[in-house]
Amino acid sequence: MRLLNVKTFELEEFHADIPPYATLSHQWGSISEEVRFESLQAAAPEIHSFVQNGIATDQVNGISKIAGCCRQAKKDKVAYVWVDTCCIDKKSSTELSEAINSMFNWYAESKVCFAYLADVRSTPDSSDFHDQVQRSRWFTRGWTLQELLAPSEVIFCNRDWITIGNKRDLKNDIQIATNIAADYLEDFRKASVATKMSWALKRQTSRVEDRAYSLFGIFGVSMYLEYGERDKAFQRLQLLLVEKAGDESIFAWTSQQDFSGLLAPSPECFQHSADIISIYKGNRPRKPSRVVQDTLQFYVPKPWLKQDAMAIALYNKFKKNLEVTMNCWRPTSSGMQAIKIIFRKNNGNWQRVNCRKLDLASKVPRNKLLGVEDNTVAFSLEL
C-alpha cells in the first residue's frame, strides 16, 4: 500500500505496520485534470504551495483536491493520506487488480475519510444547503458508494474545503440522495443482498465493468478483473454471491422482460427491492446453490412428492410451471410475506417468468418449504 506523506509529498510504501492515514473520496474530473501516479512528482511543488498558502477554489483539479486533503489531514494530525488517483500505478494490471480488491478495506481502515463535494458551495446555515447536498454528483458515482459505507468516520467538505458535517449530521440528506436508510449507514452489513443492490442502481461508472467491481467490498467478495467483459462482470458477481452468501434475496428483482434467466441483467432490476429482508423469524437457508458448467443448480424442496424416483421423473417431464417460495421477505400491511418466483420449462431447463413484478406467497408452510432437509431436487436454470 502506498501512502502520500503530507509533509514531503512523496509516496511511501507499506506492507505491515501501516501508520494512521486519511483517505480522499471525490468525483473524478477528466483524466488530464487528475494527478496520476506517474505525474505526482512533477505536481508535488504546486501541491506543496497550495498546502502552505491556501487553495484557489475557482478551479477544481487534481492538484487542488490532493492539497485540500493534505491540509485537512494535517489539521487532524494525520501524517499520511491515500488518494486513488496517485497512490495506484494503474499501468500495472496486477497492481490495479489488487487495489480494486483491497480498496474497500483501505477505506474501512482509514482514520478518517474526507468526502469532497466539489459542486456544493453552501454551508449548513445556507437556505439551499440541504438541496445542494442532496443533488451533489458525488452521490451518483459508482465508487463513492463503498467510500460512504466503509469508513467509520466520513467528513464531508464543500467546494471551499469547509467542513459541512459527517455521516450522522447529514444522515437525512444522505438517505434522500441514496435511498440508504439511516440504520444501514451505521451498519450496512445487516442489509440483504437485494437491498444493497438497490443502492447501486442509479450510480454511474466510466467503465461498464466497474458497476460490478465497485461492489466487491460491500458484498465481501473478491474477483479477478477482466475489462472488456462489460455486463458479464455483473453476472459473475451474482454467481459468486449465489454460492457464497446464501442470501436468496439476490433473486428478488424485476425487469421489463416477461422471460429471463435467474440472474438480474443489471442493478436497475433491484429498483423495487430496497425493502426486501433475508432473515425473518429464524427461517433457515435451503441447500446451497452451485454453478455447474453454464447452469445454476438451484435446489427447491418437494413437499408435494414422496421419496419416489419415478414421481420425480414424471414431475420433471410434464409439469409446466413451478412456483418457488424464496427465503426472503417483504413487509406488507398484513405482515411479512415471502417472495414467490415462478419458473417454466423451456427446452428442458427452467426459465423465470412473470419478471415484471415480485409475487408474494399467500401461505408459507415454513416447516417444509424453508427447510434444508434432504428431500430436495435440483433444477438447471438458464443464466
Summarize the structure.
With 383 residues, the chain is α+β, with helices and mostly antiparallel strands. The protein has helices at 40-53, 62-75, 93-108, 129-134, 144-149, 171-178, 182-186, 193-199, 210-213, 216-219, 232-245, 309-318, 366-369; strands spanning 2-5, 11-13, 21-25, 80-82, 112-116, 154-157, 163-166, 259-260, 290-292, 295-301, 321-332, 335-346, 349-353, 359-360, 376-382.
What does this structure look like?
The chain is 29% helix and 20% strand. With 383 residues, it is α+β, with helices and mostly antiparallel strands. Helix 1 crosses helix 2 (62-75). The radius of gyration is 24 Å and the shape is elongated. Residues 304-308 and 365-375 have low confidence and may be disordered.
| SSE topology string | EEEHHEHEHHEEHHHHHHEEEHEEEEHE
User: Taking Cα atoms only, what radius of gyration do you get, to the nearest Å?
Assistant: 24 Å
Percent of residues in beta strands: 15-25%
Helix segment tally: 13
Global geometry: elongated
Strand arrangement across the biggest beta sheet: 2-1-4-3-5-6-7
The percent range for helix content is 25-40%
Average pLDDT, rounded to a whole number, is 87
Largest sheet: 7 strands, mixed
Please give the alpha-carbon distance between the first and last residues. 38 Å
> Which class do the helix and strand fractions yield?
alpha+beta
Low-confidence stretches: 304-308, 365-375
Number of distinct beta strands? 15
Outline the fold blueprint.
Elements (H helix, E strand, L loop, with lengths): L1 E4 L5 E3 L7 E5 L14 H14 L8 H14 L4 E3 L10 H16 L3 E5 L12 H6 L9 H6 L4 E4 L5 E4 L4 H8 L3 H5 L6 H7 L10 H4 L2 H4 L12 H14 L13 E2 L29 E3 L2 E7 L7 H10 L2 E12 L2 E12 L2 E5 L5 E2 L5 H4 L6 E7 L1
